[in-house]
């Protein structure tokens, strides 16, 4: 807790209060009174429920979903009113999707609803669960204050400071919500993470800013290739060995005049009474003669009592061995005195800034105190510039005043100005305004329940959506001009940002989580069954899918190609795995598929491996993945008392996997979900557990045919993919929900239906183009607006 208090101490009190006020607001829930019109609508909906929906549930659902033994653990008889349905809005949303895809009631039920009955009930649920008047003011939702996750932290430090050393790799793992690790509600700040932030801030400031102290000057080693030798000297990469009297001469080229220090690491092989004598000269002038008593196995560092003043240019440092000695009759280990020099280095010019300062230093230290400019003046200028970029919005003099005073105190204590700025940078990097994306500070006095997101906040929403990093100079400039609510400007920016190399972060972080690619690293197929599988092959599999996603993104292709594309990307190793002998080299290349076996994402080895068990395929996992990522209809969590497939299959151990699944579906509570999942997964049984094509499993011929609950039949993966392609509207809506969730950092709610409908309709009308989807999300109310009302 003291660490958090210290963090807030670096900020003005007014701003600290603002943060706590924002945190408090997030906890407030309002329940505005219903108007007469709304009350009338509710009464009408309740009557429709009692006269229509309740009868539907009784007639078609309660036979299987009643009491403690209810199938899938889903007991529905307690839902007797509209309000009881709305209290479990999320659960009923999943049930409605099952009704919609006609897996509930199941096809083998005694009585099935007519199309009209199903449509009427779905229409009621659509209005009750998601009914929002899209013609009026719609709640755009409100995002919780969001902490930077590990990827965002690393990328932001890279773009803010100009150093890329991944400080967040040692941070605790980020929690995941709604499938993503950038959700504000789950990104907590444990004490251990605060300690890591403090350590990281210190490391970052020291790497980015040259401290200008004697200790901060690096030693520059004179490489062995720069030495010339005279006499009996053998020069190698490890050392220079003097086996008799001899000299080595090393040339250095100083870019600046000034004071320099030198060090020599040396040792001897002893013989006789005297130690080896090492004479050191610079430009022909004797500096010192050292007695080298240390043994060559434990050498010693030799330095000079004071720094040496040298002009700019070339200088020659010579090291000579003066007293060679050899006694063939002496003790075995003391017969031959030799000198060994292991390292020769220099540093400087001390007391002045080196000419080859890191780029980050020059970008941060834009003002140096002198007779005309005070420490306070320069510190304020530097920290306001740095703070504006770090906080991703303009900062005032009052905001940085406590940090400027910290710098002044540091310098007065005897440290250099650069050390003072290091401390100031550390203070900013542990500020909540850097670690969190805090919205509402720039327009706190706005009126009304719904407000526009401020310009600099839109810039951050854009950059963290597409780059997982802070805004660049162009976004800052557009925010300053007030242009980031202009649709044309946003459309141009989306295309620019998707084309930028930093959009690789979108591939890694959005695609990596949407498609579950991050889980691939943790999987290890059974090495006894899959001997050709390796860590490198697994990396190639992941890279194929990332290249595929990036191609659709950067080439602005139709998102339907995620389902049906007739191409992919391979290098020689992966191509050989797939049975393609034409691709050569390590580089990934676009490869056309003949679409007799593979098409789109689902038949890529990464996805097929992810959705398998270590020793065999898993039609259930593959079907579940398709329902979640393609159809947008994730199945409910199985009840806890349902046995694993292996247990239910023990009754018929020699059965095929298809037959075992059929047995499993006979278990109460299994059929409702497995009737949908199993056929989808079995359609891809021609691919083994690591994605290789096969026609047989053991002695049994693969049967990849199936019948979906909708009545559609298929034979093989390509026919099934054709059926899935026909569900493209559902896929587009599902992809919209996933990408909107990632973009705004919160789960979508029922009141987001209007925005999701509009985004989906608009981008599909534009040819399903990837950039159109991203642009429509950026132009949507949830992205550009925020609400003061409850988000529930």
UniProtKB/TrEMBL annotation:
Q: Which PROSITE patterns match?
A: CYTC (PS51007)
Which keywords has UniProt assigned to this entry? Heme, Iron, Metal-binding
Work out whether the entry's keyword set contains Thylakoid.
no
Identify the residues that the record assigns to the Cytochrome c domain, covering every copy. 40-129
Is the keyword Metal-binding in the record? yes
At the top level, the lineage of the source is: Bacteria
Example GO molecular function? electron transfer activity
- One short Pfam name that applies is PSCyt1
Identify this protein by name.
Answer: Cytochrome c domain-containing protein
Specify the species: Gimesia alba
């Amino acid at each position: 807790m003291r660490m958090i208090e210290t963090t807030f101490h670096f900020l003005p009190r007014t701003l600290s209060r603002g943060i706590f006020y924002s945190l408090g607001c997030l906890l407030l829930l309002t329940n505005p009174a219903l108007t007469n019109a709304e009350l009338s609508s509710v009464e009408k909906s309740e009557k429709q429920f009692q006269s229509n929906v309740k009868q539907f549930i009784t007639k078609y659902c309660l036979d299987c979903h009643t009491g403690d033994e209810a199938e899938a653990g889903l007991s529905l008889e307690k839902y007797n009113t509209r309000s009881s349905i709305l209290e479990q809005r999320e659960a009923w949303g999943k049930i409605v999707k099952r009704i919609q895809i006609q897996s509930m009631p199941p096809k083998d039920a005694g009585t099935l609803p007519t199309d009209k009955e199903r449509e009427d009930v779905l229409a009621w649920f659509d209005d009750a669960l998601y009914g929002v008047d899209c013609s009026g003011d719609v709640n755009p939702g409100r995002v919780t204050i969001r902490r930077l996750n590990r990827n965002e932290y690393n990328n932001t430090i890279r773009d803010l400071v100009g150093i890329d050393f991944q400080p967040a790799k040692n941070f605790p793992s980020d929690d995941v919500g709604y499938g993503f690790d950038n959700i504000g509600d789950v990104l907590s700040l444990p004490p251990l993470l605060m300690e890591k932030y403090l350590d990281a801030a210190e490391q970052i400031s020291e790497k980015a800013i040259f401290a200008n102290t004697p200790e901060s000057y690096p030693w520059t080693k004179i490489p062995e290739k720069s030495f010339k030798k005279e006499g009996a000297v053998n020069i190698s990469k490890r050392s220079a060995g003097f086996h008799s009297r001899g000299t080595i001469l090393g040339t250095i080229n100083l870019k600046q005049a000034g004071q320099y220090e030198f060090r020599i690491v040396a040792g001897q092989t002893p013989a006789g009474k005297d130690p080896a004598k090492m004479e050191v000269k610079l430009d022909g002038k004797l500096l010192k003669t050292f007695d080298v008593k240390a043994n060559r196995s434990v050498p010693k560092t030799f330095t000079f009592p004071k720094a040496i003043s040298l002009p700019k240019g070339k200088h020659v440092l010579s090291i000579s061995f003066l007293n060679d000695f050899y006694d063939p009759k002496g003790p075995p280990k003391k017969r031959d005195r030799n000198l060994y020099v292991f390292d020769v280095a220099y540093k400087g010019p001390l007391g002045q800034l080196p000419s080859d300062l890191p780029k980050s230093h020059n970008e941060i230290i834009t003002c140096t105190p002198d007779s005309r400019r005070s420490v306070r003046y320069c510190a304020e200028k530097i920290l306001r510039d740095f703070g504006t970029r770090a906080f991703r919005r303009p900062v005032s003099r009052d905001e940085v005043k406590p940090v400027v005073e910290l710098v002044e105190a540091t310098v007065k204590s005897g440290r250099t100005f650069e050390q003072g700025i290091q401390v100031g940078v550390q203070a900013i990097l542990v500020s909540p305004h850097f670690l969190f994306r805090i919205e509402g500070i720039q327009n706190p006095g706005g009126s009304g329940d719904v407000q526009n997101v401020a310009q600099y906040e839109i810039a951050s929403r854009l950059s963290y959506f597409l780059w997982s990093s802070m805004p660049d100079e162009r976004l800052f400039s557009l925010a300053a001009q007030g242009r980031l609510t202009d649709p044309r400007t946003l459309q141009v920016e989306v295309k620019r940002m998707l084309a930028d190399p930093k959009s690789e972060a979108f591939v890694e972080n959005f695609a990596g989580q949407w498609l579950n690619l991050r889980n691939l690293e943790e999987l290890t197929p059974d090495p006894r069954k899959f001997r050709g599988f390796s860590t490198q092959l697994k990396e190639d599999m992941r890279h194929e899918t990332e290249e595929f996603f990036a191609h659709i993104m950067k080439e602005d292709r139709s998102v339907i190609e995620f389902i049906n594309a007739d191409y992919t990307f391979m290098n020689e190793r992966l191509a050989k795995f797939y049975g393609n002998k034409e691709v050569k080299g390590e580089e990934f290349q676009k490869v056309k598929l003949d679409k007799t076996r593979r098409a789109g994402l689902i038949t890529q080895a990464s996805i097929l491996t992810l959705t398998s068990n270590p020793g065999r395929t898993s039609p259930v996992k593959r079907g579940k993945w398709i329902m979640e990522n393609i159809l947008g209809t994730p199945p409910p969590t199985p009840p806890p008392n349902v046995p694993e497939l292996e247990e239910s299959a023990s009754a018929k151990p020699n059965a095929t996997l298809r037959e075992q699944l059929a047995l499993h579906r006979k278990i109460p509570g299994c059929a409702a979900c497995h009737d949908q999942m199993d056929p989808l997964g079995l359609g891809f049984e021609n691919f083994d557990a690591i994605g290789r094509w096969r026609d047989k499993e053991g002695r049994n011929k693969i049967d990849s045919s199936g019948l979906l609950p909708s009545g559609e039949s298929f034979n093989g993966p390509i026919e099934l993919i054709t059926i899935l392609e026909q569900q493209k509207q559902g896929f587009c809506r599902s992809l919209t929900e996933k990408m909107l969730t990632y973009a705004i950092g919160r789960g979508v709610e029922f009141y987001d239906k209007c925005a999701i409908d509009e985004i989906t309709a608009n981008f599909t009308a534009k040819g399903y183009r990837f950039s159109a989807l991203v642009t429509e999300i950026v132009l949507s109310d949830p992205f550009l607006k925020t609400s003061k009302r409850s988000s529930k």
